[in-house]
Amino acid sequence: MINYDIAVIGGGPAGxxxxxxxxxxxxxxxxxxxxxxxxxxxxxQCIHTGFGLHYFKEELxxxxxxxxxxEELKKTDIDVRTNTMVVDISSDKVVTAVxxxxxxxxxxxxxxxxxxxxxxxPRGAISIPGNRPAGVMTAGTAQxxxxxxxxxxxxxxxxxxxxxxxxxxxxxxxxxxxxxxxxCEILPYxxxxxxxxxxxxxxxxxxxxxxTTVVEIHGRERVEGxxxxxxxxxxxxxxxxxxxxxxxxxxxxxxxxxxxxxxxxAGVDINCITGxxxxxxxxETSIRGIFxxxxxxxxxxxxxxVTLEAQLAAEGAAEYIKKxxxxxxxxxxxxxxxxxxxxxxxxxxxxxxxxxxxxxxxQIYKNAKVVVKxxxxxxxxxxxxxxxxxxxxxxxxxxxxxxxxxxxxLVEISVEESL
Length: 419
Prior knowledge:
Radius of gyration: 22 Å
Strand content: 25-35%
Structural class: alpha/beta
CATH superfamily of the largest domain: FAD/NAD(P)-binding domain
Shape: globular
Helix content: 10-25%
């Protein structure tokens, strides 16, 4: 058994930022456990720019963004174990990991920061009929083939799902000379950032077909084509709208799933909507001393926000180590009309700081109001020209608003029509 102050599970952008922030706050013994051979996580294969605009005030590629944190990490004595798979976390903060060098490794940590990221939803999760031919893969897998290994997945591409990675891969495949036939989206709106729709589809003349899905995959050895169809308001295919599209590759960008198997094994409460842990304003989970940040907590649009959230979790972990288990009394956030979820799910009523509430809406709104109420009293009412599910929103509860909270107070966020 090896003892550490903080064990960070995951060496992607969240884990790197959390470890560095904890070190900056005076925590001595920190270990990062990463299952891949290198640090950086998904950023390694994201060679497009658009990272760092908020945090560094510069436009960087994914490897450049990760590289800045990796270089800072090298200046510290933080213990880094790559190629090391965490297989279990217990409620008393014992981490069990395995790797080719150490074999079985057991770590007793005073605090744990969960930063495992997320995985892509596979074909099996959406049940498209057809055989299992070559050429059906997630957009992230295709991105790794092209950007890391230098392989082209195909020449005639259909993309199902308009999340950001699907949009980015539409542009990437077009740049590599593939014919991107279309991007199909089952919802009546895109799930990606507006800037990616413009820069990745509109600029390349790639059509985006909304309220459309793939209903069958054709081909036995290799994809030969797909049948697409329009869907109704309940997302059921409409008979008579089917259309055959010839292609040799189908890329899936149909959602991301936070990697919380380890969180569940520790007994952490998982939110049924976000798929991540329920947390307080410092990102502490239902188990004292275990914190969560980044895409393992909620799927973010921008890595800059992942970094900020990871630093917040590190502050919470450092405070926990220095002060021990102080009693906390909570108020709770409640998503009301038009709001899908809110993070954090609870707020320590004695929090002596401003608290940012992150949330997503359920549909596209134009000229609406975001209204925040504390126990029925409106404390924030803000007009927004546009709200979309693909873009995370935030409101800030000031310290004077936090001071109004009582134990079991309700902080509600809703979307209302703006007159």
